[in-house]
Amino acid sequence: MSTSDTPPVRQEDDDLQAARRPHRDTAGRVFAGLSTGAGTLILVVLAAVAAFLLLRAWPALTAGSEELAAISWIPDHGSIVRYVGPLVFGTLVAAVLALLMAVPVAVGIALFISHYAPRRLAASLGYVVDLLAAIPSVIYGLWGGLWLSRRLEGVWGWLADNLGFIPLFEGPAATPPRVMMTVGVVLAVMILPIITAVAREVFLQTPRLHEEAALALGATRWEMVRMAVLPFGRSGLISASMLGLGRALGETMAVLMILSPGLTYSFALLLAGRHQTIAANIALQFPEASPLGVSALIATGLALFVITLAVNMAARWVVARRKDFSGAN
């Protein structure tokens, strides 16, 4: 059919689409430029933060033991590495302990809300979980230091008496129990709503056909969850755990208000005066710090920055490796 035989309405539609095509191309280029600029800005800010921390921490990193000895809260004849080491250890112990407690509970709550609870109950529980994330950390600190620690005193004493042969539960348990185990419980409660909220949304995104296929083959509800829901949400669950781990690593006030500080490498979670975290130590020592002391504290902040960056990079690597086997594709 020749061009002259083309219906007028179709010809007008083709002309309209041809007129709109340059506008679409322009909008696409603008969006691509904005996205690239936003990504570049994030990298620039990250590099600027790293450069600031390194610059401000350099005096402490290059100072001798005699200069560092003038700082009252740094152990005598110690280097900055010996000072930062126990703080890094305490930070990692607190974060890992909180993660071990929170993740199983968060997965259970998320599965109950997404696949077991009635719709009205699930909505109410979802609101309650989301509200937990809005509570300030200082409230958690007051709750943990003034109320929860007293309630856990008997539990930690029982662990020390009956399982004291395990280094983690070496006794006698401190009274009041301002120890790392209490901090781990409070941090677990703090990161619980973050992990639960993300895991719940990921589990709800499981393809309906996968669930129905498992049930049609005779699987029970738990078998369906184990074979369809959990593999699909594995990458999202790892991401949720890393979000919770990030908050646990950087938590300040709750740890400061509960923990009895110490600078040792100890796995005894029920003994006081053994551990301290980087964030809590900065908040504790900063008001009375000298210029060199501020530099030493910023050096510990640089260590926390490196730890957080390494954790996020490792999480991205794990997610990328597991993506092809998660069922998400």
UniProtKB/TrEMBL annotation:
<comment type="similarity">
    <text>Belongs to the binding-protein-dependent transport system permease family. CysTW subfamily.</text>
</comment>
<feature type="transmembrane region" description="Helical">
    <location>
        <begin position="125"/>
        <end position="148"/>
    </location>
</feature>
<keyword id="KW-0813">Transport</keyword>
<keyword id="KW-0812">Transmembrane</keyword>
<dbReference type="InterPro" id="IPR011864">
    <property type="entry name" value="Phosphate_PstC"/>
</dbReference>
<feature type="transmembrane region" description="Helical">
    <location>
        <begin position="30"/>
        <end position="55"/>
    </location>
</feature>
<dbReference type="GO" id="GO:0005315">
    <property type="term" value="F:phosphate transmembrane transporter activity"/>
</dbReference>
<dbReference type="GO" id="GO:0006817">
    <property type="term" value="P:phosphate ion transport"/>
</dbReference>
<dbReference type="InterPro" id="IPR035906">
    <property type="entry name" value="MetI-like_sf"/>
</dbReference>
<feature type="transmembrane region" description="Helical">
    <location>
        <begin position="252"/>
        <end position="272"/>
    </location>
</feature>
<comment type="function">
    <text>Part of the binding-protein-dependent transport system for phosphate; probably responsible for the translocation of the substrate across the membrane.</text>
</comment>
<protein>
    <recommendedName>
        <fullName>Phosphate transport system permease protein</fullName>
    </recommendedName>
</protein>
<keyword id="KW-0592">Phosphate transport</keyword>
<keyword id="KW-1133">Transmembrane helix</keyword>
<feature type="transmembrane region" description="Helical">
    <location>
        <begin position="292"/>
        <end position="315"/>
    </location>
</feature>
<keyword id="KW-0472">Membrane</keyword>
<dbReference type="InterPro" id="IPR051124">
    <property type="entry name" value="Phosphate_Transport_Permease"/>
</dbReference>
<dbReference type="Pfam" id="PF00528">
    <property type="entry name" value="BPD_transp_1"/>
</dbReference>
<feature type="transmembrane region" description="Helical">
    <location>
        <begin position="87"/>
        <end position="113"/>
    </location>
</feature>
<keyword id="KW-1003">Cell membrane</keyword>
<dbReference type="InterPro" id="IPR000515">
    <property type="entry name" value="MetI-like"/>
</dbReference>
<feature type="region of interest" description="Disordered">
    <location>
        <begin position="1"/>
        <end position="22"/>
    </location>
</feature>
<feature type="transmembrane region" description="Helical">
    <location>
        <begin position="179"/>
        <end position="199"/>
    </location>
</feature>
<dbReference type="GO" id="GO:0005886">
    <property type="term" value="C:plasma membrane"/>
</dbReference>
<feature type="domain" description="ABC transmembrane type-1">
    <location>
        <begin position="88"/>
        <end position="315"/>
    </location>
</feature>
